[in-house]
């Protein structure tokens, strides 16, 4: 039977050629064309499925599938589906009119911009992404509607199209792309397979390429959590991150009001490299991969998690690759923060030993959240743990009780002592423990910032490193020790050590300390130490790299060694002994290097 459809026409636009504009402005990455066309094919397949469930289609559904075929010789890529198909009138409506109904406005609004707003929603341009790579596109389609005639639409990238009847046995649509010379990179099976796996790995309709199905149509985030086992979650994690260690635990997100959101977030074993941990959350929209840049949807500290978020309610611009901040995004952001906080609180409450066992891995993440997110702090302050050098864990409130009696200074402030390196600061830790003081271990890259937050949030709490001052100054009490030295001896002692000090800018002072304290103690002001630690964690050491290191050399007036040095009559020996104990203090802080270290070793051999 001769076709009744035979039409030629011009696309209803007010510019000579919209396609160069599409090619230039529509997408930042041309590979997106395949995502758009496959997504459209999936939509068409799902529509026929829904129509059948509504009783509006009573034919055979068959196996719903999207096929992508490559013909290198013909230089074509074909995307086929057996979905709803289109009639001639629907092609006119959906292909000719919608895409170009606002062409003039589109051109005027976006010709000078690289960022294009929500153009897909306004102009229906998803199909036209094909022209980023094709010089000519054919549509061969047949509607599911009974008695429908197959239709062929052709457009070569100009404003002219041709619409005619054709032969097609089954319902559905074939989109045939005749690839342009400047896009022949896409005529490569490995390139196409990579794009399909990137964007279509979890599409809900089977995607076939080279006679193989490339996707998992039912990823675990689409399932009910009660139907899943731990093994299912671990297997999916391995699917996402094949070479990673098993995660510590996970959260299954599932909310349908006031927005729609599903997903699974995993808590990985964190390393000290924050940046290397990020960009491990993938954003999907109805199982189509969108991006792994989720900074607007997920708070910064939660980007250390791994996994998948899927939401059709997230507004996306034309390329579906950048998020626009709006009410839904903020609500989703807050929901994820709350959900993560609730999960951690639940584990802490139900299994504290298990929580403590994992804390060395998740502590970085929790502290990062406490520093950066006020709402998260409100939840996390009850389960964030402090670990001391003996390996015991405490909540903030528990620790206040532990140190209240012995580590409250004369002004009523609690002083929390900490070490950043147990081995290097061992002598200071031991001195503190002799006084009955507890010492926290705060040596991670984020702890310098975490300490600042603790002092801001906790009333009447000061946090000081064990080597920031001599012990009596770290926690000042009303009781003051008396020096056994006379004024003359004090002056003579100070003068002696000023003569042997390798760094003449060091501040030397004589203090009354306990008899069993070291004869010479070198300390660094807490603000200087903390500033340096914060610089190191931010990678900004060079900013203050040329500043002189400020430190204090405290001479223990009550040390028997100091008394022995003062009583030594041999001037040369006196200087050698003073230099020896000074270098010992330098050594305890890791500051003795080069010639000073060599001379110290030689002097030690001679003294022995």
Automatic annotation (TrEMBL):
Residues 29-183 form the Histidine kinase/HSP90-like ATPase domain. NCBIfam families: PRK05218.1 (NF003555). The keyword Nucleotide-binding applies. It comes from Dyadobacter jejuensis. ATP binds at residues 36, 40, 81, 86, 101-102, 173, 320. Belongs to the heat shock protein 90 family. This is Chaperone protein HtpG. InterPro entries: HATPase_C_sf (IPR036890), HATPase_dom (IPR003594), Heat_shock_protein_90_CS (IPR019805), HSP90_C (IPR037196), Hsp90_fam (IPR001404), Hsp90_N (IPR020575), Ribosomal_Su5_D2-typ_SF (IPR020568). Keywords: ATP-binding, Chaperone, Cytoplasm, Nucleotide-binding, Stress response. It comes from the Bacteria. SUPFAM superfamilies: ATPase domain of HSP90 chaperone/DNA topoisomerase II/histidine kinase (SSF55874), HSP90 C-terminal domain (SSF110942), Ribosomal protein S5 domain 2-like (SSF54211).
């Amino acid at each position: 039977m001769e076709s009744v459809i035979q039409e030629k026409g011009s696309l209803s636009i007010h510019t000579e050629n919209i396609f160069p504009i599409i090619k230039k402005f529509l997408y930042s990455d041309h590979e997106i064309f395949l995502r758009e066309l496959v997504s459209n094919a999936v939509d068409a397949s799902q529509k026929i499925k829904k129509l059948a469930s509504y009783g509006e289609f009573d034919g055979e559904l068959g196996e719903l599938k999207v096929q992508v075929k490559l013909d290198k010789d013909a230089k074509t890529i074909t995307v086929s589906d057996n979905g709803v198909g289109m009639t001639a009138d629907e092609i006119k409506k959906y292909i000719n009119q919608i895409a170009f109904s606002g062409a003039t406005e589109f051109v005027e609004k976006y010709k000078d911009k690289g960022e294009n707003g929500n153009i897909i929603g306004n102009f229906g341009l998803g199909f036209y992404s094909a022209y980023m790579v094709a010089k000519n596109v054919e549509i061969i389609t047949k509607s599911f509607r009974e008695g429908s005639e197959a239709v062929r639409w052709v457009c070569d990238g100009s404003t002219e199209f041709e619409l005619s009847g054709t032969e097609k046995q089954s319902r559905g649509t074939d989109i045939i792309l005749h690839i342009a010379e400047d896009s022949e990179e896409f005529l490569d099976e490995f390139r196409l397979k990579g794009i399909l796996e990137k964007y279509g790995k979890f599409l809900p309709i089977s995607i076939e390429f080279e006679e193989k199905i490339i996707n998992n149509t039912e990823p675990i985030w689409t399932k009910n959590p009660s139907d899943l086992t731990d093994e299912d979650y671990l297997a999916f994690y391995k699917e996402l991150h094949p070479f990673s260690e098993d995660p510590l635990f996970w959260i299954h997100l599932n909310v349908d009001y006031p927005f729609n959101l599903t997903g699974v977030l995993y808590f990985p074993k964190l390393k000290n490299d924050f940046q290397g941990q990020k960009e491990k959350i993938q954003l999907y929209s109805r199982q189509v991969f969108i991006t792994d840049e989720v900074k607007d949807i997920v708070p910064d500290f939660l980007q250390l998690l791994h996994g998948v978020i899927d939401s059709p309610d997230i507004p996306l611009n034309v390329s579906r690759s950048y998020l626009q901040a709006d009410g839904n995004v903020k609500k989703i952001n807050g929901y994820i923060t709350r959900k993560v906080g609730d999960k951690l609180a639940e584990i802490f409450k139900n299994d504290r030993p298990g929580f403590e066992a994992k804390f060395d891995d998740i502590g970085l993440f929790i502290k990062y959240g406490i520093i950066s997110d006020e709402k998260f702090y409100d939840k996390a302050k009850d389960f964030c743990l402090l670990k001391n050098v003996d390996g015991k864990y405490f909540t903030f409130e528990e620790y206040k009780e532990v140190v209240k009696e012995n580590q409250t200074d004369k002004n009523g402030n609690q002083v929390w002592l900490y070490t950043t390196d147990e081995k290097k600061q061992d002598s200071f830790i031991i001195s503190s423990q002799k006084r009955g003081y507890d010492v926290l271990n705060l040596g991670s890259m984020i702890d310098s910032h975490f300490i600042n937050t603790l002092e801001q949030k906790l009333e009447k709490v000061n946090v000081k490193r064990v080597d920031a001052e001599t012990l009596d100054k770290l926690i000042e009490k009303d009781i003051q020790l008396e020096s056994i030295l006379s004024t003359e001896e004090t002056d003579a002692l100070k003068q002696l050590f000023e003569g042997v000090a390798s760094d003449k800018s060091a501040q030397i002072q004589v203090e009354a300390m306990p008899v069993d304290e070291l004869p010479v103690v070198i300390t660094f002001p807490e603000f200087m130490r903390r500033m340096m630690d914060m610089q190191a964690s931010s990678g900004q050491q060079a900013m203050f790299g040329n500043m002189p290191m400020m430190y204090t050399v405290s001479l223990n007036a009550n040390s028997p060694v100091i008394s022995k040095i003062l009583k030594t009559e041999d001037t040369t020996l006196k200087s050698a002994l003073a230099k020896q104990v000074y270098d010992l203090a330098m050594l305890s802080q890791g500051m003795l290097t080069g010639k000073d270290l060599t001379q110290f070793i030689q002097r030690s051999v001679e003294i022995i």
